[in-house]
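Moderator note: this is an archived Q&A kept for reference. The question asked for a predicted structure of one protein chain; the sequence and the answer are reproduced below.
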Amino acid sequence: MDQTTQYTGFPVRTADTVLIGHGLTKTYGPTLALGGVDIAVLRGESVAVMGTSGSGKTTLLHCLAGILVPDAGTVTLHADGAPVAVHSLSPGGRAALRRERYGFVFQQGLLLPELTALENVALPLLLNGTARREAETQAGRWLDWLGLEGMGQRRPGQLSGGQQQRVAVARAQVAAPPVVFADEPTGALDSATSEETMTALLAATTGRGGTLVLVTHDESVARRCDRVVRLHDGQVAHDGPTAHERPVPGAAPTGTQVSR
């Protein structure tokens, strides 16, 4: 029988969730960043986390992603077998989780400048032990799928800002993680490039059955997600669905199905 739990005012079946944060509290000295936040993220869902500067949105993302350990509360990942208590993992365990089960897209892309686009995308697979030829084959398929055909040998400095972000999206997806985190992924882009990047990011995550948790200050970006969580002074002020139609993406590269 499915277990149902109440989170932020609405019931969620735990069988439907991929990530649950419960009672998350985090302080920086005298400053309260999170004050007992509850959040449940569903499988295949895109969630935008919004709030003013200092509201706790990036801290929440970092706690869910295992970058930070909350002072109190729990973070549980439900994917590929037994639930994982992210908050209780060792630093090495959390690093392995981020490498193997999570994908990340940041505002500036954070590509390695000395590597080519192909090498940047292949890197997560190489770190997980995939043979170089197979890793680069998968990386090339993602670059082609995201409209970067013929650019695999370019270094980040030879790409536009939008192209760099699409490389970052490919890198986040190549290992087929069940959850992708994005921190202001369009914050450094113009409006047209921002829309293109969001289209690529959504198609590459929820379009292949994955889950996206995204921090943004841009209302137009948030409206493209399935749900918006608004934080205020470290508390959830609003949590509800958006009114949008999810586009139907083309088929993602082979070998990228999300593990359940």
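Archived answer notes: Residues 5-11 have pLDDT under 50 and may be disordered.
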